[in-house]
Design goal:
Blueprint lengths: L7 E4 L1 H4 L16 H12 L3 E4 L3 E3 L6 E7 L6 H13 L3 E6 L3 E3 L3 H9 L11 E2 L11 E2 L1 E2 L2 E6 L5 H18 L3 E4 L7 H14 L4 E4 L17 E2 L2 H12 L4 H11 L13 E3 L8 H4 L6 H10 L3 E5 L14 H4 L10 H14 L2 H5 L1 E7 L3 E7 L4 E7 L5 E3 L7 E4 L5 E3 L4 E3 L3 E7 L2
Parallel strand pairs: 1-2, 1-15, 2-5, 5-11, 11-12, 12-13, 14-15
Antiparallel strand pairs: 3-4, 6-10, 7-8, 9-10, 16-17, 17-18, 18-23, 19-22, 20-21, 20-23
Helix pairs in contact: 5-6, 7-8, 10-12
Length: 436
């Protein structure tokens, strides 16, 4: 699967382009801005772009009005088609946000229910009680996602609803040649729907990738041979920044051993979860870390651990924003991309990851672990890589059995001699490919 050997780049289009929050109905060709960023994305080493919602919605994209029409604030279907063509021409795959659990109050079929009530042919598309009332005083009650009544929950057990969604997905493949979907709140979607979607998209396009947004619980509920290929690894998202902030790398390594370790009871051995240090819903990592010196290190750990690394636009050069500042801060508009030492470092990590069988598919084993240092092994039959992190300001001399005397650092391309152990400079990270 191509996604397992990829580095993802996330763009939240409405924020990225500076579109107004409320859908003003004015068509602007803002999505074409992505084209100017393609050289930057390519230089960063990303070979897949995940777009947060792009279709016509009431406000933030997750309250869809029309699954087949690009949001007028972003442009036209033709605009987005050309963006996708240019991304593909640059060797970059395209993954769209599939928001299938709920729609907006401006969704055509829901408007029909508000107007025609029991006589609407779409009344069973939603979870409605005509004897109740809503927060909007509609004279009827309906289920909203987690109590948010601007997000009208769809009845995914209704055949016509599933047909409507599948028709949209088919049109996205035919019109934009998309390569996959990220399913919003996948933990809310019925497993039978996920199975049907997996079978349907597999017939539409070979190696069509399905990623699910999941927060807690056993990810195997939604991921498997006949369901999703991957899910978001929120457990390790928390463990990554918390480990650095508390200077306790035991936390993240414990999670990685629980998920991917050598024991038979580990949960996700052989799976490829989506790894990230931030996204459109959480504080940017540069604002979340208490020590800025840890910023390159947390990216090294994310790229070195099992999973598919995803970088959120702007964070590659250290943009800051806190969750409490609100969504506009998290989903900012940057006039043009910036390049600095951090983005150059991430580019090196990307190339190392994409070109290493061990980093893409290797097993996970902890080799050395202290509060401030960790070394772990990624290994396949053909390749063995050691990932080393020193989160301390002081130099650390690591004594461990390297299994050989020589290695090449995949990041710097320099040779390393393990005679007598290894010296880890303060605030350093290495990907050592071990010589046989």
């Amino acid at each position: 699967m191509w996604a397992y050997e990829s580095v993802f780049y996330q763009i939240y289009p409405l924020g990225f382009t500076g579109a107004p929050f409320e859908n003003d109905g004015v068509q602007e060709h803002r999505i074409r801005k992505v084209e100017a960023w393609i050289p930057h994305i390519k230089k960063l080493g990303a070979n897949a772009v995940y777009f947060s919602p792009v279709f016509e919605s009431d406000t933030h994209g997750y309250n869809t009005r029309d699954y087949k029409k690009i949001d007028c604030r972003l442009g036209t279907n033709e605009d987005f088609k050309e963006v996708c063509e240019k991304l593909h021409k640059a060797g970059i795959r395209v993954v769209l946000d599939g928001v299938f659990n709920h729609v907006g109050r401006g969704f055509t079929e829901f408007l029909d229910v508000l107007k025609n009530r029991e006589n609407s042919p779409y009344k069973d598309w939603f979870h409605i009680n005509f004897g109740g009332n809503s927060n909007y005083n509609d004279g009827l009650w309906y289920e909203g996602w987690e109590g948010h009544f601007d997000l009208v929950k769809l009845n995914l057990n209704h055949p016509a609803v599933v047909d409507h969604i599948f028709s949209a997905v088919k049109s996205w493949v035919e019109e934009f040649d998309i390569d996959g979907l990220r399913l919003d709140v996948a933990y809310c979607l019925p497993q039978e729907f996920l199975r049907r979607l997996r079978a349907f998209t597999g017939e539409l396009k070979e190696d069509f990738f399905l990623l699910g947004e999941t927060l807690h619980g056993d990810y195997n509920q939604w991921m498997g041979q006949d369901m999703l290929h991957s899910v978001t690894n929120y457990e390790c998202y928390k463990g990554l920044f918390s480990s650095f902030n508390s200077m306790n790398l035991f936390e993240i390594v414990h999670s990685l051993l629980r998920q991917f370790g050598p024991e038979n009871w580990t949960l996700y051995k052989g799976c490829h979860l989506l790894s990230f240090v931030d996204n459109h819903d959480v504080s940017r990592i540069a604002s979340n870390l208490t020590n800025e010196k840890h910023l390159p290190l947390i990216y090294a750990l994310m790229f070195g651990m099992p999973g598919i690394p995803c970088v959120y636009y702007g964070s590659e050069w250290g943009a800051e924003a806190k969750k409490e500042e609100g969504d506009p801060a998290l989903r900012a508009c940057f006039e043009e991309p910036e390049e600095n030492a951090l983005s150059e470092w991430i580019a090196k990590l990307s190339e190392a990851k994409k070109n290493s069988e061990a980093l893409n598919y290797g097993s996970f084993r902890s080799v050395l672990l202290t509060n401030k240092q960790c070394i772990f092994e990624r290994k396949t039959e053909k390749e063995r890589v050691l990932v080393a992190i020193n989160a301390d300001a002081e130099e650390y001399h690591a004594h461990f059995d390297a299994g050989c005397g020589l290695a090449v650092d995949l990041i710097s391309k320099e040779e390393h001699d393990f005679g007598g152990g290894s010296r880890l400079p303060g605030y350093s990270a290495f990907f050592w490919k071990m010589e046989r």
